[in-house]
Amino acid sequence: MDKPEKVLLRAKITYFFKETFRARSKAEYKEIFSRGLNEDNSGITGAFPWLYVRAFFALFILFTINTLVLRLTNNTLYVPSVTFLGGITFTIPFIVLLFELYPKRNLSLFLILSVLVGGGTAAGVLSQLFYSLINTDNPWVKAVASGCIEEFCKIIPAIAAIELTKRKNPYACFLVAASVAAGFSVIEDMGYIFYYSDKYVNYYSDVQATIALFLERGLSSFCTHILWTGAVGWAYCMSKKPFGSLWIFMLVASAGLHVCWNLPLEGWVMVVDIVLCVIVAAAMNIAIVHVSRIRTLASEVDLTRMNERIILEAKKMGESMRFKNAGNLTFALNCTLLSVIILLLCSLPIGVEYKSVLYDTKDEFISFVEDGFNLEADRGRKMKDPYNPENNFEERKVDGELTYVVQCDELDGYDGKYYYAYYVSSGELDSISVELERSGYSSRYYCAEYKFESETVWVFEVNTDSLIDFTPHKDGTVTAILDADEFEGYDILIGLCAAGAAIAVGCTVILTAFIIKLRRVKGEYD
Q1: What is the pLDDT of residue 149?
Q2: What whole-number distance in Å separates Cα of residue 16 and Cα of residue 50?
Q3: Count of Cβ atoms closer than 10 Å to residue 179 Cβ
Q4: What is the mean pLDDT of the chain?
Q5: What is the DSSP letter of 105?
Q6: For residue range 364-414, what is the model confidence (pLDDT) as tens digits?
Q7: Contacts by residues 355-360 (CB-CB < 8 Å, ≥ 24 positions apart)
Q8: What angle do CA 189, 194, 195 make, to 5 degrees?
Q9: What's the CA gap between 78 and 71, in Å, rounded?
Q10: CA 179 to the chain's CA centroid
């Protein structure tokens, strides 16, 4: 015979599944959006989380649609919508889930979102003020500084929000502090997505980088800012004194986790570091949420009777309800999988007009532009006597007067010839070119000015037929925008389209089977 704990666990999973995916009435939507706004906000909600799933699917699909439009049209007017949706798709549903897990009815979703916007903005402003006082290029110092500064700057508006809301329940304090951190995270995520997606506004938006950051920043929101600050807010309420030892410990722990997360590590050491940070933060906050929720429920209701009701509800859930929930889940998975395929299509270089290539160093990029030739521009070369024909390769005259000369020279390291053009009247150097033989043909290539952050370099434009633009970065890397010569990726395009069609057809068949089965089932349970 199964133990009561196993029976209760299975019943809770079944009940949670049913409550998550069953259809909702207008009254239920009204209840959750008006919770905490009515005159009577006492008691327990008694509802299992469900709104967060709908919020996530809606935002995820909207992000996918806007990203697809940006990818197909390259219309940069869609960059703001992609940036906004990318910043909130994971974070907002997560906060909604934490709100729904809060069992009491004295907090409103409107209040939580207001704290998210206002508190997150305040935390962002404070952090930038502190960052303005620190000027260092050392990545280890930056990691320590960012972890300490951001955790300190988030907890200040979090404590202010806790005091203003006058909620002394530990879970309520956790939720308010987590909302401030969520607002800070949204601002930060939108900044990263915007910076990388709109970098080449005159050419194309880097959709691949946008999607990568959307997933990276979104998934990390489950184990970073929100949990770190939420734990400190919980400790603030749990401490006997406002800033007791438990609060100090949690603040130090959250800052320590933040510093470890930011450390400039590489390879398997970085992986181990991130995994440990995730495990510690997740375990700590799951314990906080679970214990705080159970204690809140225990103070209001009889948990034994509530568990018995859940077991009874799970047993009463008939075949009809199981098929309904399975159908809803199938539809949700269908939309999700199709969205994933669309995002893959957007992120892969299929038929792109332009492509980006990242060069690790400035010299590597220059070598690409000069096609590997070892060339050198002598910008300090003085014009030789222009009136001595032996010095001039080419002469230009106006009304019989010599005005412009091109002089030929040789430099060490290259056995070809360089050509220097001067205005005779001023002696000013106009241009430098070099004669090279490529693919059996000799041509002259000119030297142009290239700016890399604070440095200016003269580069011979030998291999620039496909170069559209380039962007130097502070870390010394250079991103080049190149012309994609021809359509590529037909096989990938066909494969992904076939997979999408197969998923759509398969889910349609399954949903049809569920509908037919439901019509045959009698005694439906609602």
Answers
A1: 93
A2: 9
A3: 30
A4: 84
A5: S
A6: 999 999 988 888 888 888 999 999 988 999 999 998 899 999 999 887 666
A7: 355/481, 355/482, 355/484, 356/200, 356/206, 356/479, 356/480, 356/481, 356/482, 357/479, 357/480, 357/482, 358/477, 358/478, 358/479, 358/480, 359/477, 359/478, 359/479, 359/480, 360/476, 360/477
A8: 100
A9: 10
A10: 18
**Residue that has been written with the tokens 């184990």 in this structure:** 223
Task: Report how far residue 176's alpha carbon sits from residue 423's, in angstroms, rounded to the nearest whole number.
Answer: 71
Q: In whole angstroms, what is the distance from residue 408 CA to residue 387 CA?
A: 15
Joined together, the tokens standing for residue 455 give 């440095």
The span from the CA of 421 to the CA of 505, in Å, is 68
Sign, Cα dihedral of 438, 443, 447, 452: negative
Tokens of 251: 């603040």
Edge-to-edge strand list for the sheet holding 428-438: 394-398, 401-409, 418-423, 428-438, 441-452, 455-460
What's the CA gap between 71 and 277, in Å, rounded?
Answer: 35
**d(C-alpha 255, C-alpha 261), whole Å:** 10
In the sheet that holds 478-483, the strands lie side by side as 354-359, 478-483, 467-472
Q: Which residue is associated with the tokens 């510093």? A: 259
